[in-house]
Design brief:
mainly beta; 4 helices; 8 strands
Length: 193
């Protein structure tokens, strides 16, 4: 543990190294991200369903003291028995993350996300109303970015999300993906500013 702490301290740059005029960077760039997402744990619900394939799509931009974005995480869940159906989930969310720049242009982020957690159950005996459920989801997110070029970045991420169903669903997800970064067109900056 002591060695890990020492490594983290060594990766932190001097505080003035990345000083910037935050106001001038608002919506200056846009980042599109796509990646693989996997549910690691659903708490008590693990005894009913197994997580299958998942994907994540995000779009973000610098916003004052951090990054502001929207995203969607999709995931398939297969049932452990015939008593409950398989289902697909889509977490459609907005997020804000604080980005801490490290050495070698890498960065570590932490933030919050909130949105609608949609579950679509694969059961033909249910009405359309019964087979679709949407609940509030709120959580914390973490991401580590490793630039591979001026416009592409590899990232690994994790998040902890609570879904506010009658019995709370506590999700722990992890994933990895690639981001594409570009300068915002002037018309987008005009609309957003």
């Amino acid at each position: 543990m002591k060695n890990l702490f020492l490594l983290l301290i060594m990766l932190l740059p001097p505080s003035g190294l990345y000083s910037q005029n935050v106001e001038s960077e608002v919506f200056e760039t846009i980042t599109l991200s796509a990646g693989y997402n996997k549910n690691i744990s659903m708490g008590e619900l693990n005894k009913y369903w197994n997580a299958d394939k998942g994907a994540s799509l995000k779009i973000e931009s610098p916003f004052y003291a951090g990054l502001l974005g929207v995203g969607v995480d999709g995931q398939l869940f297969t049932s452990n028995s015939l008593l409950q159906p398989d289902y697909k989930s889509f977490f459609i969310y907005m997020y804000w993350q604080y980005q801490l720049k490290l050495l070698f242009n890498t960065s570590l982020r932490a933030g919050v996300k909130f949105g609608s957690y949609v579950m679509i159950f694969n059961d033909v005996t249910l009405s359309e109303f019964e087979s679709n459920e949407s609940e509030l989801g709120i959580g914390a997110s973490f991401q580590y970015d490793i630039p591979v070029s001026k416009i592409f970045t590899f990232y690994v991420q994790s998040d902890f999300v609570t879904v506010f169903t009658m019995k709370r669903i506590k999700l722990f997800n992890a994933g990895a993906g690639v981001s594409y970064n570009f300068t915002s067109p002037e018309w987008i900056k005009d609309i957003l500013n």
